[in-house]
Amino acid sequence: MLAAAGKLLESALVKLSSVASKLTTVSAQDMIKAMIGGRRDPHELAALARGRMRAKHDDLVEAVARSILVIIWVRREALSLRMEVKDRPSPRRRSGGVKREAA
């Protein structure tokens, strides 16, 4: 499950990198930080583009929208997994093993 979530997050960044030349550019970093911070409006996120990337606004909106959907899905799955683990009964200690001698 976690490996699949990692692949999906990578996929989300690939969608952004299909428009941004590098994910290390200031524009891409600003968008990624904003998404991590909870911003979800693709137009607002695309407006963070600087320089030549501003000319790719429509492509950015589409790439960011797809990335956001993936991120939302991953968060939902992570929460579901967390709840599943929390609801599992904890293993009980068995009372066998080494006995201590009275001193």
Question: What would you say about this model in short?
Answer:
Helix content is about 60%, strand content about 0%. It has about 100 residues and is mostly helical. The chain has one domain (about 1-85).
Structure description:
The protein has one domain. It is an all-alpha fold and 103 residues long. The chain has four helices and no strands. The model has no long low-confidence stretch (mean pLDDT 78). Helix 1 packs antiparallel against helix 4.
Any key phrases for this structure?
single chain; 103 residues; mainly alpha; 4 helices
Q: Please tell me what the overall shape is.
A: elongated
Radius of gyration: 22 Å
Number of helices: 4
Strand content: under 5%
Count of the domains? 1
Describe the main β-sheet briefly: none
Question: What pattern of helices and strands is seen along the backbone?
Answer: HHHH
Average pLDDT rating:
78
Structural class, please? mainly alpha
Low-confidence stretches: none
Please specify the SSE layout and strand pairing.
Elements: H1 2-17, H2 26-36, H3 42-46, H4 57-87
Helix pairs in contact: 1-4
